[in-house]
């Protein structure tokens, strides 16, 4: 299992990408999606609800918060 100190959250919002070490957010890697989004919103000083429509993808090396993919 990946150690918390090396776990990274990749955030894609408004055409930019940010990388935040999970340890800097003060939450655990098994936090809920809402807890992750709330912590990232506070850390990046985003408006409340700015990540509401984003999805969270968890891999062994990172957690990715990105806009929902729309097809068609």
Explain this structure.
The chain is of the alpha+beta class. The protein has one domain (4-67). It is built from 2 helices and 4 strands; from the N terminus they run E-E-H-H-E-E. A 4-stranded mixed sheet has the order 2-1-4-3. It is globular and about 35 Å long.
How many structural domains can be distinguished in the coordinates? 1
| Number of DSSP E strands | 4
List the helices and strands in order: EEHHEE
Total count of helical runs of at least 4 residues: 2
Q: How much helicity do the residues have? A: 10-25%
Q: Which structural class is indicated by helix and strand composition?
A: alpha+beta
Could you say which overall geometry the principal axes of the C-alpha atoms support? globular
- Sheet bearing the most strands, described? 4 strands, mixed
How do the strands of the widest beta sheet line up side by side? 2-1-4-3
**How far apart are the first and last residues' alpha carbons, in Å?**
37 Å
């Amino acid at each position: 299992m990946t150690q918390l100190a090396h776990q990274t959250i990749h955030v894609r919002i408004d055409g930019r990408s940010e990388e935040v070490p999970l340890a800097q957010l003060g939450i655990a890697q098994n936090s809920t999606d809402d807890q992750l989004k709330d912590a990232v919103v506070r850390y990046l000083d985003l408006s409340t609800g700015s990540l509401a429509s984003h999805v969270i993808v968890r891999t062994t090396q990172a957690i990715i918060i990105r806009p929902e993919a729309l097809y068609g």
